[in-house]
Amino acid sequence: MKALLKLSVVLLLVAMTVAYWLWQDMNRYIKSPLVLSEPVSSFIVPKGSSFNQLLMKLEGEGIITKPLYFKIFATLEKLSHQVKAGEYRIDENMTPKSLLMLFVSGKSVQHYFTIIEGSTFAQVRQALEKHSDILAIELSDKSDREILEAIGAKELHPEGLFLAETYGAERGTSDLDILKRSYRAQQDLLRSLWEKRNKDLPYATPYDALVMASIVEKETAVPEERPVIAGVFVKRLNIGMKLQTDPTVIYGMGDKYQGNITRKDLRTPTPYNTYTIEGLPPTPIAMVGPEAIQAALNPEVGKWLYFVAKGDGTHQFSASLKDHNRAVRAYQLKRKQSYRSTPES
Questions:
Q1: What sign has the CA pseudo-torsion 277, 235, 219, 194?
Q2: I want to staple 53 with a disulfide (CB 3.0 to 4.6 A). Which of 33, 43, 49, 157 is the partner?
């Protein structure tokens, strides 16, 4: 009996020693830097995966070398059911503990997609498709009208409806979700700026202001020029003068535009040819950023009625046709460029 008791005590002490050693070893492992079998930049926790499936994936990719310790620690901390799906950036200085906490935090890698100022909706669609390695592509088989319906837009034409900004998205985000966010951002911004607008502007609706903003966006990329150019076009509208802006002609030509505008193009009527139509074109002609909308709703209306590109990205503004023609000769005709921003006399 005493021998059995002694054996039990010895076994208990051995078990306690082993347990203590394992506990200490687990703590050392959990708090030590990851030992990666090969460089890893990111890791994806699949949606709907169990913790055991996660462990197998971590071990299979050489990130966790002692999965049992990892599981015991997660279970003791009651974190095994709090892991969130997503793509996570892996740092070789991370520990198994910090890796688990990262999975629990849900702070997954953000990928960024930019809608470029002045781009068309067709170009936006093409750019989204190029991110098929990151985004879930849902738009490829949809028409423009179907896309507008899917995002809840009441408008019938997609141009100009998506705010030209940079949007963060997790891997697996749908391209449709990007457009929804962009559309809502555009609507919110336009609504806010419309309420603060100068009430004397020749716009019947916020959409008119968006049309003007798209023209301004295509005319200049120089921030300080945007309100000035908007002022030129507002002044033309106020005095009943045609807008006569080349970007609208180019947009109306569609695929027929091959890099140059001819006199015939300027005289050929299209819904967007502001050399032949009165007032604004029927829709925006490009995506716009916040600054262009701000300029359209807060234009600097002064003496300027004409402007011409200098060739360095900026423009020469003129109050009279005589001065404008002089500027055209100085800046445009010498370079034999066809782009004028306003008609020749």
A1: negative
A2: 49
Q: Which of 190, 217, 243 is the last residue of a domain?
A: 190
283: in domain: yes
Which candidate, 57, 289, 331, 71, places its Cα nearest to that of 190?
289
290-323 per-position pLDDT tens digit: 999 999 999 999 899 999 888 888 998 999 999 8
- Give the distance between the most distant pair of CA atoms in the chain: 121
> Is 65 part of a structural domain of the chain?
yes
Tokens (6 digits) for 300:
């600097």
Nearest to 307 by CA among 298, 319, 297: 319
**How far is 245 from 277, CA to CA, in rounded Å?**
11
> 62, exposed or middle or buried, with CB in 10 Å at 0-12, 13-18, 19+?
middle
Q: pLDDT of 132-154, one tens digit each?
A: 888 999 998 999 999 999 999 99
In a domain, 76, yes or no: yes
Same structural domain for residues 231 and 272? Answer: yes
Instruction: Report pTM.
Output: 0.82
For residue 287, the enclosing domain spans 200-335
Domain co-membership, 162 together with 129: yes
Residues 206 and 291 in one domain: yes
Q: Give me the amino acid identity at 183.
A: Y
* φ, ψ for residue 47, nearest 5 deg: -65, 135
Is the residue at 134 inside a domain?
yes
CA distances from 273 to 79, 114, 266, 270, 280 (A): 63, 29, 7, 5, 10
